[in-house]
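I'd like us to work through together how a protein chain folds, taking it slowly. To get us started, please write out a protein record for me. Label the sequence line and the structure token line clearly, so we can match residues to local backbone shapes. Once you have written the record down, we can walk along the chain together.
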Amino acid sequence: MRYKDFELVDFLTDEFFILWVKNPDKNTQHFWEKWLSEHPEKRAIVLKAIAIIRAVGYEEGENMSDSTYIDVFENVMNADIDHSQKSRTFIHPKKNNFLKNIAAIFIFGFCAWMGYYHAFIYSLPTTELNEAFIIKRGTSLGNRSVITLADSSKVYLNSSSEITYSSNLATADRWVKLKGEGFFEIKKNGKPFTVLIENTKIEVLGTSFNVKVEEDKLSVALLTGKVMVKDEKGNQVALHPEEMLIMEKSGDLYKSEFDNLEVTGWKNNVLVFNSDNFEICRKKIENWFGVELILSGKIRKSWVYSGTYQNESLENVLRGVNLTSGLNFRIENRKVELYN
């Protein structure tokens, strides 16, 4: 049987396919990428087989020897060229029948559960098969950037942030994985757009919103349109313009209003301090300018600072802090010392 005639059970019991899923190398990777590009109608079955193999955890102890591997690979290559019924089965008949029976029983239960889980509990979009189809873009500490995606949507990345997305985003599932902070301007094209953050996802069509991932919480601030935020616990929250959702690591979540300039001004190079205490000011300055702030002097516990800076230098921001705190500053390389 040729691969184009394979059903789900056949993939689950094919050693060459299992070898690719569990221990891919250049040869198997090249073969399956080329084969999938020529047989897109089999993509859904292949993805399901991959998920099952990874979930079941096939034993990796039965590795093929180099000579067997070469024979197998040559047979596979010949099978897609030769229309004769050459045998590519590498498992003894008894073992093959046993595995097929086990796989068939497992598939019904597994697929039923996975279907329920993805349809009603937590459905993630289908990502690509390997890193060759994945694009990663990021920013270093103190830098920001704007990325235009293939569907003309724009992603503004704040300092020390990263997005991962599919290279065929314009024609397939539209999804982006985010680390750090990003502002999204999503173009409507009839397909939903999903932002993935750890165990949470944000579903949108055409809208603009800000997402910030911190150690203790996730915040989603909506400017235009409408989004739905879901997590793996089953929580679903719809956001309307001018609403912000806060999701604490502890599990608490709540909505609040937000200051547009304070939350999204960073994408236009606007740094905002809004009655911030020293620790928040320190974090903002370090993240914005890519420096380390060292406090050598003393500052009142009740001290807070407010100010708005657009395209301003580190020195000008520190002068503003100096006027209200009395702290002098000294800059040496990427370190800033504050002292009395």
